[in-house]
Amino acid sequence: MEDLLSAAVPAPAVLRDHAFLGDGERGAVVGPQGEVVWLCAPQWHDDAVFAALIGGPGHYTVRPQNAWRVRGGHYEDGTLIHVSRWVTDEAVIECREALALPAARDTLVLLRRVRAVRGEARVHLALDPRPGFGADVMSEDRGATDAHTAQGGGLHLWFGGVAVRRGPGGGWQAAFTVPEGEERDLVLRIGRRPPDTAPEPRRLWRETEEAWRAAVPRCLDTAAPRDARHAYAVLHGLTSSAGGMVAAATTSLPERAEAGRNYDYRYTWIRDQCYAGLAVAAHGPHPLLDQAVRFVSARLLTDGDRFRPAYTVDGAPVAEERPLPLVGYPGGSDFVGNRAGRQFQLDTYGEALQLLATAARHDRLDRDGQRAAEIAVQGVERHWRQADAGIWELEERWWTHSRLSIVAGLRALARSLPGPAARSRGDLADAVEAETRRRCLRSDGVWRRAEDDEGAEGALLLPMARGCLRPGDPSTYRTRRFIEERLGEDGYLYRFRHGDRPLGEAEGAFLLCGFMMALAAHAEGDRVAAFRWFERTRSACGTPGLFAEEYDVQQRQLRGNLPQAFVHALLLEAGARLAGQEPD
Fold first, then answer.
1. How far apart are CA 92 and CA 16, in angstroms?
2. CB 3.0–4.6 Å: which of 360, 367, 472, 561 could bond 416 by disulfide?
3. To the nearest whole number, what is the mean pLDDT of the chain?
4. Which parts of the chain register pLDDT below 70?
5. pTM for this predicted structure
């Protein structure tokens, strides 16, 4: 039997070939050869049990024994149930895989079902859990049986479906066959406590299928229904029952090789959560809108003037950034924690106001939400003149995007919640706009990136698309054209220029900005341009249909953490808007 545990870490693969399994409380990343190379347990921000993706130990591999194989795979429509598929010279083999739903915060169940589509399936299995990013090992509770148990690092493991034996380097492995037309279920459970009863795979699969059918709308009235359903499924899989949605499932996947831009995205950015809520609302008042409103409102009510740009999914502060002693994904280095949790980002108030205003328009804003909106308005009143780190978390400056975002939020709230306070909110929006015009609008009618930066800024497209300026304002069209001329290339959009370096050399095309351009063109009535940007940007996904933050146009590769929530959110919103949904 081939020893799949002889190598400590599976060979790295390009990001575009990885799939994602999510249940809202944590996520797994699956490589092209059936290797689960990333899984934190029991929650998103906890340490990884499988860290091979970033050069650490730990993986869970199920793949054909026959090395002469080609692989493929797909998601079942409207779900995060993934099917890996291999064709060998002797068989066609599929492995259906999912994190079981409904999920529990302290326990995960990873389901895999091996099916022999044609011929007899001869399969290798390797299970090598390494809690604490590899710092801990799991010791088995008893010998090799069909129900194998182990513990370590404060976690309890239960594995069933096939008898396993201890490998020479730690972990467990097995070889088994599945006759043609039959299937074999494998169940991996990891939690803070051992199970009371053995997990029953057929029931777990049935409940998971039912949960996905109930969670994801059909999205038939969007410009790209299948992609819209997939985007909604990704957002659902990234959103905890506590309400928080992580920005991505992973940490430290490099945006550019050896450039030092490696970040931990396993936290909830308020901005990203608002983008998701607004995107969902563009199609309809689905449950993800309510979860976003609940989470953002709770953070405003709890923290008030200490409102942070990022939290854990259950509302705790983000850990300080620290390195890990791992080699990293090729071209990167490993970190956990994120400094953004301590920054001041003014636009966060604006995005929160837009989200709460949209909830009010859909009659989904309760008294707590209205109180949260007032706290956000008070935050704007106190801080709008203050320099901030901005959407891209850079040095503190007077960023134009931050001001226009709060103008958009204030005006949206005034429209959605009429009454005595609406006029004062409108007056505040007018004051912020007037001062921002004085500082940040060039003489040719184009908005600067910042008070002291004449350059183009892709992020400006979104507040303009959301109606921060009055209809017919010439600066909207002029700025959009300026951004397209300066930051567009080969149908993709970059967020800003890095000095005199050519676009694509400093970083990849920023997919969020491509969908922003589609929304901005649509808001101006330029339907052809809107669809052109939408279609080009949605082509920049990996083979399973997942988007990362950036796209390397020259190499046609994904760059950065994945799946990137705000890219999927803007795809969903653009798909709804371009199909005829009017802006809020």
1. 23
2. 360
3. 95
4. 1-9, 142-146, 581-584
5. 0.96
